[in-house]
Amino acid sequence: MNRERPTDIAKGLGILLVVAGHTIASWNSGHELLYKFIYSFHMPFFLGSGGMYIRADGPLVAFIKAKLIRLVVPFISWSLFYLCLAFFIQAIKNDLGTPTFGFAPKLLTVLLHGDWYSLDATGIYVDLWFLPALFSTVIITRLLAKWSDSQGLIASLGYCYLLSFSIVLFNDLLGSRPFSYWGIDIALASLPFVYLCKLRNYFYRVTPYFIFPLIVVVCMFSRTQEVSLAVLKISNYGSFIISASLGIILLFAISAWIQDWKIGRILGMLGERSYLVFLMAGAILTISGPARRMLWSVNDDFSNIISFFVVLVTAFFAYPLVASSVPLAFLAFGAKNSLQKQP
C-alpha cells in the first residue's frame, strides 16, 4: 500500500502536539488553554487514523494475527523496557530492598488490564495505554467493516457518534468503567473518529481560508471541557465531540495545504516515525530528567521547550537505527522486517 503524503504530514503534526502536550503544554506548565486545545483532539486523531485503512476484505484471523504483531508485541516489549528502566532507577536509589517492586506481578497486572491505571500503579510509562486502546479500536473496526460498508461512511459515522455518546454516558451513570480492559470502552467511544478519518479525502479539499476559523472554533470548544481520553473522563461531551472532530479535519486540511512545501516533507518524515517517537518519549524524558531539572530552576518554559526538542530529535534519529535491526524493529513497532514501515 502506497503511503499518503498528507496523512503522514497529519501524523507529523499530530506527534508534534503529543510531545508538546507532555512538555511545553503539560497540565502543570501554566499554559492551560494550549493544553486543552491539544488534548481535545490529538489522541482522537491517532486512534481514528489507526483504523482508517481497515476494510472487510481478507480473513479475520489473519488480520487479528497481524495486529497482535503490530500492536501487542510492542506493548509487551515496551512494558518490559519501561519496567526494567523503573527497576534500574530504583537500584540507583539503593531502594531494591523494599518488597514493593514485585517485577513479575506488576508486569502481569499491566498485561491483564492494559489501561492507564495499571501502568500508573506499576510505574511504567502511562502513555502506553494507547497501544491496547488502538488494538481494541482496530479489531472492533474490522468486526464492523461489513456492516459499515452496507451502511455507508456517513451513516456509519452518525451511528458511531451515538455509540460513543452512549458509552461515555453509561460510564458516567455507572460511576465506573466495566469495559476498561485493554481500552475497549475508549475504542468504542473513539469509533466515530475512525470513520471521520476515512472521509479524509473530503477534508483535503478544505480551502486554506477555512483553516484559521477552524482553529478558532476548536479553541472555543476546547476551553469549555476537561478531557482525559486515557481514562475516558470527559466533562462536556458535546464540546469534546465538536473540538475533536473539527481538530481532525483541521489536521487533514493543513496537511493537504502544505504537502508540497519543504516543511510538509519534513513533517511527512516525522509522521512516518511518529509511532516510535511516541513510544520513546517516556524513556527520553526519564533519562534526561536530571538535566531538565537543572534547567527547570532557571526557567520552566525554557526547560519544557528544551525537553520538546530533545524528545523529537532523539526519537527521530533513533528510528533508522532501530529499523535497521530486524529483532529491534519487531519488538519496537511490530515490523516483520527492518524495511517494513510502521502502522
From TrEMBL:
It holds the Pfam family Acyl_transf_3. Residues 8-317 form the Acyltransferase domain. The keyword Chloroplast does not apply. InterPro entries: Acyl_transf_3_dom, Nod_factor_acetyltransferase. The keyword Cell wall biogenesis/degradation does not apply. This is Acyltransferase 3 domain-containing protein. It comes from Nitrospira lenta. GO terms for molecular function: acyltransferase activity, transferring groups other than amino-acyl groups. Keywords: Membrane, Transmembrane, Transmembrane helix. The chain crosses the membrane at residues 12-31, 37-56, 68-92, 124-145, 152-173, 179-197, 209-225, 237-258, 270-288, 308-333.
